[in-house]
Amino acid sequence: MDFPVTLDSQSNIPLHRQLYDEIRRAILSGRLARGKRVPSTRALAESLGISRATVTMSYEYLLSEGYLEATTGSGTYVCRQLPDELLRVKTTARNKESRAAGQPSTRKANFKKLSRYGVNLKDREWLAYRGDEPEIQFSFGRPDWAEFPSRQWLQLLNQHFKEGALWQLDCPSKAQGFLPLRQAIASYLARARAVTCSAEQIIIVNGSQQAIDLVCRVIVDRGDAVGIEEPGYIGARKALEAQGAQLVPLKVDASGLTVEPLKDPALAQLKLVYVTPSHQFPTGVVLSLPRRLELLDWAERTGTFIIEDDYDSEYRYKGRPVPALAGLEHHDTVIYMGTFSKVLLPALRLGYLVVPPSLIEVFKRAKWLCDRHSPLLEQMALADFIKGGHLERHTRKMRALYEQRRKTVIDALKASFRDNVSIYGDNAGINVLIRFHNCPADNEVVEHARALGVGIVPTRHFYLGDSPRGEFLLNYGGLTDEEIKEGVKRLEKCIYPD
After folding, report:
1. Distance of CA 374 to the CA centre of its chain
2. Please, what is the Cα angle at 469 between 227 and 494, to 5 degrees?
């Protein structure tokens, strides 16, 4: 290139996106003139010291958006008719008309309309999922939906869709959720998680993310200090940030969340602490019983609420299950949340909150303001699914299946990487955290893996502070044994490119 290109391998922005932005800016600023030939993908990759796949991906975006044009047998050139040039002309004309009429520009007016909540979301680049998925996807924590008991589920849906029951589908006042489902969940939690609660304490929500968002809106004011795990779940962090919370990272070690730092008098002002004690995300460690009791004691003394996200507690392969925090405390400090996304289907969009009795009314009203109520027909079917014992039978079946896949993942990783990889969190859930002791930059691994048809996610997005290099999350729930083995083999080529 005729201009300096600066790429940051430690940035959260992928290398192909950084290169795309650099070339695009150069074209729009005139540093790359229209009609000028650009280097070949091979030549540019060699000069920048990055993979050719990264350069190819950047060029493909620029070609598809009209910044570059390719001539067969000749090369790739800067397009002579730039799309942004036309857009600038139209925008400038509109702005002149607005100023002539004494009105502010459209851009400024739109910005003024955003709330602090909206501005907070606007200023953060995330949820930038690509539409095209690789052949083998380790990135998303999906269950194996091919094993879902669809026949039984459809029978229950049809049963509740009979003409005589249609009147039940008009329930605008049932924001809290279908009562038989709440009763079934209360009974299930008593058996499976030692959580004693009434159906009245349960709020049905559209999955765990809505549960987190509701808690943030009801409990947290702008500027409130909130403790979160470090590393931790990005969905909770973003919801808290959008609400204006001041996040206090709490380190996670082999026994889970470290409680000792909470004893600092300065942290007695925390409004809320968010934890994933049964299978910490993303490390996979389990919060030990002594620390659970210590955390509950601290929360009672300080009056701090705890969000217990029990997102996949059903899948545990080693040792006895540790009781949920909500099953241990009796002082109304824990707000417990669960979801059916991991044990059944993500698209079902049903989860639940168990709130202290004193908060029932306010959470019912907050849910009503969001969406009136969660899908009712699915709630009816799920109530019967749980009461008929289908949920627990399905869970036992899937636990055995995922335990086999867990073994396949570990065996494949050890066979390919031997002493160059450490594996964490393999005793529960449907993912493992792996750390390579010697590997290329995280972005390079991700891009190379995608070029080979494998999706993999580095853990740097889950840290507020510095993150370890070479640390990745591997989700295996939705993959077959053959896909897992093939995916790890392809990943080996990314870690040992030579």
Report:
1. 21
2. 135
pLDDT in tens, 68-121: 888 877 889 888 776 554 445 444 444 444 444 444 444 444 445 777 777 777
Strands (E) across 183-331 are located at 202-205, 225-230, 246-253, 256-257, 272-275, 305-309
Cα–Cα distances (Å) from 246 to 107, 270, 335, 464, in that order, read 29, 9, 20, 12
Do 460 and 310 touch, CB atoms closer than 8 A?
no
Kindly state the helix (H) or strand (E) to which residue 441 belongs, with its residue range: none
Query: What letters, b where the CB count within 10 A reaches 16 and e where it falls short, cover 258-273?
Result: ebeebeeeebeebbbb
pTM: 0.74
Contact in structure between 78 and 35 (CB atoms under 8 Å) = yes
CB 308 within 8 A of CB 341: no
Contact, 239 vs 262, CB < 8 A? no
Give every strand in the sheet of 471-475, ordered side by side.
Answer: 421-424, 431-436, 471-475, 457-458
Q: pLDDT for 366-401, tens place per residue?
A: 998 888 778 888 898 999 999 999 999 988 898 899
Determine the Cα–Cα distance for residues 19 and 171; give it in Å rounded to an integer: 52
Task: Return d(Cα 51, Cα 148) in angstroms, integer.
Answer: 40
Question: 220, 270 in Cβ contact below 8 A?
Answer: no
* Domains in the chain: ranges and CATH: 15-78 (1.10.10.10), 83-113 (no CATH), 136-145+394-495 (3.90.1150.10), 163-389 (3.40.640.10)
**What DSSP string describes 114-166?**
--HHHHHHHT-------SSPPSEE-SS----GGGS-HHHHHHHHHHHTSGGGG
Contact 478, 137 (CB under 8 A): yes
**Exposed, middle or buried, 107 (CB in 10 Å: 0-12/13-18/19+)?**
exposed
